[in-house]
Amino acid sequence: MISPHPELPAEVVIVGAGPAGLACALRLAQIIDTHNAAHPEAPISKDGICVLEKGREPGAHLLSGAVMDPGALRRLAPEFATDLAALDAVPVHDDAAWFLSRRRAWRLPITPPPLRNHGNYIISLQKLGAWLAQKVEAAGITIFSGVAGAELLWTESGRIAGVRTDDKGRDRDGQPKTGFEPGSDITAPVTVLAEGVRGSLTEQLRKRLRLEGKIPQTFALGIKEIWELPPGRFPAGRVYHTLGWPLGNALYGGGWIYGLPENRISLGLVTGLESSDPRLDPHALFQIFKTHPWVRQLLQDGEMIRFGAKALPNGGWPALMPLAGEGWLLLGDSAGFLNGQRLKGIHLAIESGCLAAESVFAALRDRSPARLGEYATRARQGAIRRELWPARNFHRAFEHGMALGLARAGLQWIMGGRDPFGFAPARPGYQRMRPLAEMRHPAPALTPDGRLTFDKMADVYHSGTRHEEDQPAHLLISDTQICATRCAREFGNPCRFFCPAQVYEMAEQSDGSRQIHLNPSNCVHCKTCDILDPYQIITWAPPEGGGGPDYQGC
Ligand code: SF4
Questions:
Q1: Rounded to the nearest 5 degrees, what angle is found at the Cα of 452, between the Cα atoms of 446 and 453?
Q2: Distance between CA atoms of 532 and 216, rounded to whole angstroms?
Q3: What b/e readout covers 27-48, taking b as 16+ CB neighbours within 10 angstroms?
Q4: Is residue 399 packed enough to be buried (19+ CB in 10 Å), middle (13-18) or exposed (0-12)?
Q5: SS3 for 446?
Q6: Number of folded domains in the chain?
Q7: How far apart are CA 254 and CA 223, in angstroms?
Q8: What residue's CA is closest to ligand 1, atom 8?
Q9: Does residue 19 sit within a domain?
Q10: pTM
């Protein structure tokens, strides 16, 4: 049978134009240029290398705090230091950690060493993505924007053979509309997955090859708003981190306030996705965070101008899956490269992209896909290991709460990452949820006032999210009866709470029963539902390419 999907033969397909994927593409172009100058008799073409980006343009879906350690970017593109305005970048000149109680805030007498940021830059990750993408295209590598990787292609022998891109122009029932275009089969001996956290193709790979780390990966959700403040309120280049209220002892996470150029701040809260409470609502917690007198005072007379939400992997070194195999590589957040102790991952994403490029080049030059495996060895022995190994037990230090966790993390810092106490068996966050009937206290909640605090729909509006409405739902629930029966009974449908974009609702039917109802066009692509659904029956698949948030200026 003839496939309806046109085949596009390539050499390397990189999925994701984030810092990892773009660093891989740019470094690969640099290495090929150097090789071709030295060996004009045996040139390597860049024509067969492409990058797929599901956002409208590179950077559109990139969201992070973000304070960047510039080391890896400086090695990849040293000119960034003279182009700081293009990245909305400011050097950090002042940092502090604060502890919040319900009403008061105390500045810690010293900033914990991992949170010291002198020498780092506050940047817009969205602008970094756009900036790197320009360099990649100028270096002769094609970026297909608005094109999502829909599924992995496999050979009969079980090797990855490339990526099928998304169909364009199906209606909500899956039927082709006028102008329908089937996705293409981009066949390539090398597939690089740099999709960010909980990538959908990475999940296909993980499930098919049963890839696991030593412990299951764990995640947190970062919720962020950009505010414009009266002049002089909070200087650009100042970095504050907060601990304590409103998360309490049981919840892992903390807040941040970063000073941006033009009287703007990035304000956010990271909440661990491993609560026993099925009513965990990170969006509500973030709104409550802003009502603290210390934060409220900061935001007074300011205006919220942007919103975003994104999950992040925090399991660290022991949760890393295998990083490479036959025809594939995992980079950046898709691999789990995030230093939870330092709250940083952008530099590790760039570092992993550069390391991957060296192995991909060797595989292309020698026509030897086996050389891809060198990437895994380099990542596990080089700079990435040097950074992540001493922090290997950081996240697990908090298994008995924040107070004990801070003491234990301090001890680990002194002992080079060793933890003398041992850990309980690790479990993914969704397995820690307890039945609703066991909850003894009301869930934290507030009524948004529309000035300081906002409901989910107002925040979705400020994320710039747009999707084609008439397309198949990209949130696939394998058994909606579980939602209406077991999940309603046991957990009270936690997706209604943890989703920061009000995608999930339980709608009353004419017979009085309640059925799950989805608003997929609200989705800000944070991946929390794929991660935290207690029955693991929700699969996040990419919607038609080009849809999703637009994190301009985030
Ligand atoms: Fe996040 Fe899922 Fe809600 Fe989309 S539907 S915003 S991925 S929790």
A1: 35
A2: 13
A3: bbbbbbeebeeeeeeeebebeb
A4: middle
A5: coil
A6: 1
A7: 11
A8: 499
A9: yes
A10: 0.96
Q: Which residues pair with 304 in a beta bridge?
A: 227
Which atom number of ligand 1 is nearest to the Cα of residue 311? 1
pLDDT band, very low/low/confident/very high, at 290 (cuts 50, 70, 90): very high
| Distance of alpha carbon 125 from alpha carbon 65, whole angstroms | 8
Ligand 1 centre from 431 Cα, in Å? Answer: 19
Residue nearest to atom 1 of ligand 1 (CA): 526
Neighbours of 416 (CB within 10 A): 9
CA–CA separation, 514 and 511 (whole Å): 9
E-only strand ranges, 273-396: 303-313, 324-325, 328-330
How would DSSP label each residue in 509-524?
Answer: PTTS-EEEEE-GGG--
Q: How far apart are CA 192 and CA 329, in angstroms?
A: 5
The continuous run of DSSP H or E covering 28 comes out as helix 19-38
Render pLDDT for 377-397 as a digit per residue (tens, 0 to 9).
Answer: 999 999 999 999 999 999 999
CA 408 / ligand 1 centre spacing (Å): 33
Atom in ligand 1 nearest the alpha carbon of residue 501: 6
Segments of 146-229 assigned E as strands: 149-154, 160-165, 168-170, 176-181, 185-187, 190-193, 219-228
Rounded to an integer, what is the distance from CA 201 to the centroid of its chain? 14
Q: Which atom of ligand 1 is nearest to the CA of 532?
A: 8
pLDDT of residue 257: 97
> Does residue 445 sit within a domain?
no
List CB contacts of 30: < 8 A, sequence separation 6 or more.
139, 357
Residue 53: its H or E element:
strand 49-53
How confident is the model at residue 65, as a pLDDT? 65
Quick: pLDDT tens for 469-512: 999 999 999 999 999 999 999 999 999 999 999 999 999 888 88
Q: Does 275 fall in a domain? A: no
Q: Which domain holds residue 343?
A: 12-64+129-213+320-390
Ligand 1 — pocket residues by CB below 6 A?
A: 475, 499-501, 503, 523-529, 540
400 lies in a domain? Answer: no
Spatial neighbors of 279 by CB under 8 A, at least 6 apart, are: 436, 439, 443, 492, 494, 497
CATH code, 363: 3.50.50.60
